[in-house]
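Lab notebook, design round three. We kept the backbone fixed and only want residue identities now. Task for the bench partner: fill in a sequence for the structure below.
Input structure tokens:
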């Protein structure tokens, strides 16, 4: 019975994964799902999926609670409803299933054909971990190694002539018991730091920020599946820039001009002080509607070329279409770097439907 239940559960999970794959584009552009994220799981609504359930038969009278009862009591079948009449149409079947972020990242990688990331350099950050790599004769029962225990019991019975191949009844004694044991080893970790930068001047509306928030969720999900440890930092700017927390990043709106170079300077200071390039795989994602004070372009491009690109695995610029933004900065980047963009990726995001392709452009290089 247990094996049948395990098989059914496994089959149900495969059906759920199939539905997620079929509707991945919708989920990628559906910002509501971010609000359903827990620490390691995310809830996803799966429509038109029947959930296995028990069907109860009509056993007639008798059993617990039998008796005359009071007049008007509803004991079985369907009683009278309330004030409203019952509907005659079937309801929609929508099931919310919990999927681990690792599973979600694997599905995203498969469907967008994202290559696994090869961390640059050699990680020299290590962490002490317990590794089960030996067997002992004593230990807690929770660590008993059942296979090795029965092998020892069989060896003992064979050596003493007690083992009967036609009736292989192997009963371990206390001396036969074996337990898993561990030793503490130092394992290197490949660590990554993500720096998000966003223009929060008046031309960036709430709709554009929701696009950024949704895309960042999927970027985080993928990169966290590729590295042992991921740190995330947020920088906002108009004419000046500052590091903020995640909530402030997505909910701040300022007025005034725009100087992209101010964000680049804060990013450089952050990376040099907290994430030295020899220890960290660095990723920068900048989002803007393309507005920048004209005289600032030269400073921004120089900072990007000389002090950011040499440090990072990847620098991604996403330009979100806005009814108020000029969109000129994307052209400035294309003109400055041409086609020789080894670790610079540019993407234009027209609306929420453009998030899917933008993620593929950003993460498709495998860096």
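Proposed sequence:
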């Amino acid at each position: 019975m247990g094996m049948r239940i395990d098989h059914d559960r496994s089959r149900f999970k495969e059906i759920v994964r199939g539905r997620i794959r079929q509707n991945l584009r919708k989920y990628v552009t559906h910002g509501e799902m971010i609000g359903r994220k827990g620490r390691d799981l995310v809830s996803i609504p799966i429509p038109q999926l029947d959930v296995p359930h028990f069907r109860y038969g009509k056993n007639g009278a008798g059993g617990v609670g039998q008796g005359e009862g009071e007049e008007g009591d509803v004991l079985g079948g369907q009683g009278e409803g309330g004030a409203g009449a019952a509907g005659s149409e079937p309801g929609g079947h929508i099931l919310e299933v919990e999927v681990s972020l690792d599973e979600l990242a694997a599905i995203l990688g498969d469907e967008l054909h994202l290559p696994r990331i090869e961390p640059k350099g050699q990680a020299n950050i290590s962490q002490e971990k317990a590794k089960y790599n030996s067997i002992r004769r004593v230990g807690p029962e929770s660590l008993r190694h059942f296979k090795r225990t029965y092998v020892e019991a069989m060896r003992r019975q064979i050596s003493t002539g007690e083992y009967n191949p036609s009736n292989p009844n192997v009963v371990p004694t206390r001396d036969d018991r074996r337990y898993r044991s561990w030793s503490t080893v130092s394992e290197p970790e490949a660590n990554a730091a993500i720096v998000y930068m966003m223009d929060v001047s008046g031309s960036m509306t709430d709709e554009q920020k929701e696009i950024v928030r949704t895309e960042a969720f999927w970027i985080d999900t993928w990169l966290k599946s590729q590295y042992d440890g991921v740190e995330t930092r947020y920088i906002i700017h108009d004419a000046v820039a500052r590091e903020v927390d995640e909530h402030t990043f997505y909910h701040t709106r300022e007025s005034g001009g725009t100087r992209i170079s101010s964000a680049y300077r804060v990013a450089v200071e952050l990376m040099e002080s907290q994430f030295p390039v020899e220890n960290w795989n660095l990723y920068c994602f900048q989002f803007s509607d393309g507005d920048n004070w004209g005289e600032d372009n030269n400073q921004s491009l120089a900072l990007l070329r000389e002090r950011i690109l040499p440090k990072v695995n990847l620098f991604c610029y996403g330009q979100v279409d806005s009814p108020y933004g000029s969109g000129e900065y994307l052209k400035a980047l294309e003109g400055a770097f041409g086609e020789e963009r080894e670790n610079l990726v540019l993407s234009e995001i027209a609306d929420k439907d453009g998030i899917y392709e933008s993620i593929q452009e950003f993460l498709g290089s495998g860096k």
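Keep this in mind before ordering anything: The mean pLDDT is 80.
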